[in-house]
Amino acid sequence: MTLRYGLIGLGSMGRHHARNIRALEGAELVAVADPYGDKFGVAGDLEVLPDVDALIDAGIDAAMVAVPTGQHAEVALKLAEAGVHTMVEKPLGSTIEEGKAMVQAFESKGLVGAVGYVERCNPALLEMRRRIAEGQLGKVYQITTRRQSPFPARIADVGVVKDLATHDVDLTAWVAGSKYASISAQTAHRAEREYEDLVTASGKLENGVLVNHLVNWLTPYKERQTVVLGEHGALVADTTMGDLTFYENGSLPLGWDQISAFRGVSEGQVIRYAFEKREPLAVEHEHFRDAILGKGSEHVTMKEALTTMEVVQAILDSAAADGEVRHF
Fold first, then answer.
1. 85-126: per-residue pLDDT in tens?
2. Last residue of a domain, one of 111, 143, 169
3. Residues pairing with 218 in the sheet
4. Cβ(87)–Cβ(66) under 8 Å?
5. Which of 304, 307, 327 is nearest to 317 (CA)?
6. Which of 50, 49, 89 has its CA nearest to residue 73?
7. Which of 167, 136, 121, 125 is nearest to 232 (CA)?
8. Is 284 part of a structural domain of the chain?
9. Is there a single domain that holds both residue 39 and residue 167?
10. Domain count, the chain
11. Which one of 82, 111, 140 terminates a domain?
12. Dihedral of the CA atoms 303, 240, 186, 73 (nearest 10)?
């Protein structure tokens, strides 16, 4: 069976989705839509349709939604009504109410509703999660993330929390296998935009793991790092390069008493792992396809993405209340 795909949104992300859908086994990109045209020239021989209604009329089985966040709900709800399996770019929607409506619409129709949290398909995080599940770190104590870079011109309708921190919230709960229990945050506006461009957030998961997120659009270099600290050492993922390094607690005794007392643990072996590194977006589309075909459940569901939205909103609410702790 070949799935007929439609793509709406031909911007900076849409062009990469088009490339990956065309390369996806068992899929055919049969229709694309964008009211603003095709500035990246990704349509090829396909007509650039004006809206989601025209996309639906093309007769599609599945759709990828890569329009601005503010349009996610309107577009996705029409696709659900038409019986089209749909994946939307993260975040799920602009508001919790939109998110709930989307979850209900797809679940009531028995359709696959997925959200493009592509970091879950990053090779370093997949390998990290596997090793944690196998017990390499023993008991996990803390997860910290840093996601910093200059301001991206593609973003117009949200701040750094909904655009970037949402990745860290999702991947942290996924890696740890636990939901958030509480969160506290502070934000700042430094670039004279309507939305925040810097956030620092800290909290605790239901399983007791402490978390910390540092995210901004003000750093003159790009950094994407996730560190999971446990009783046997730390796993450090560089998701820009897809690298994973293990810093093991040392087993050799320290002869220098002052350093031994200060460090608590000694430095052991440092191992940088070699493993297959595939493009995360390609893996993400495979997960979506397999869910449609009933062959897998590795996609990020809209219900999961709604939970992430609730944490993200709590981050913004906490910051507005000068860091007041929010509980779930």
1. 999 999 999 999 999 999 999 999 999 999 999 999 999 999
2. 111
3. 150
4. no
5. 327
6. 89
7. 136
8. no
9. no
10. 2
11. 111
12. -30
- Nearest-angstrom CA–CA distance, 129 and 132: 5
Cβ neighbors of 34 (< 8 A, separation 6 or more) are 8, 9, 10, 11, 14, 48, 49, 67
Q: Are 128 and 140 in contact (CB under 8 A)?
A: no
CA–CA distance, 58 with 32 (Å, rounded to integer):
9
User: Nearest 5°: phi and psi at 153?
Assistant: -65, -20
Identify the residue whose tokens are 């509480």. 182
For residue 29, give the H/E element and its range.
strand 27-33
Place 210 in a pLDDT band, splitting at 50, 70 and 90.
very high
Query: Does 323 lie in the same domain as 192?
Result: yes
Residue appearing with tokens 């596997």: 130
Selection from 160, 166, 232, 171 nearest residue 197 by Cα = 160
d(Cα 85, Cα 293) in Å, to the nearest integer? 11
Residue type, position 63, single letter: A
Whether 253 and 242 have beta carbons less than 8 Å apart is answered as: no
pLDDT tens digit string along 221-245? 999 999 999 999 999 999 999 999 9
Q: Are 149 and 222 in contact (CB under 8 A)?
A: yes
- pLDDT band, very low/low/confident/very high, at 139 (cuts 50, 70, 90): very high
